[in-house]
Automatic annotation (TrEMBL):
It comes from Solimonas aquatica. Residues 1-20 form the signal peptide. The keyword Signal applies. The keyword Signal applies. This is Outer membrane protein beta-barrel domain-containing protein.
Amino acid sequence: MFKRLSAALLLAAPALPVCAYGPTVGLDAFYTHQDSGDATGEGFGARVTAKLSADPDLFLAGQYQKNDVDAGSLKQWRAGFGMGAWTDDSAFIYWQLEYVDLHLPNVLDDQGGAAHLGLAASVTPRLSIYGRGGYVKLKDNDGPEFVGGLAGQISGGLGAFAEYRYTRLDSIELNDIWAGLRFTF
């Protein structure tokens, strides 16, 4: 895990001097609850995003998540990139491609990719909603994935978020609920 999270942070580092406008790097730390048959339990995760340019908005993203579940430790690692554009001052539409690595002892050990389309919209200057849908294609499994969430800015570079992710693969169905803090730099 340390090597993968370090790699994600190193990928994000070049974005710092490139963008002098607004937050360019975000770090999420979250609690997660998994409720999926053999994969029911709690855990933690971290996600890093780095904005590389403003027009178009190019970004990198990396995530690690570990849930201690009935069947062992469910571990997820994701790394990817995407691009988006503001449709007006309050809506952002984007696409994202990512590498996905899922591991649950004796149930799932698979790697592959995912593609998503998403939309984020500001409800108020401090509150936004977001969602994305796509497809996960791993070596031995594939299926749809949907994410929805709510994010709020507490102050300056500190925010909070709640998110739900549903992934339906051939061998397992994953239901993740996240709640965490977002730090932006």
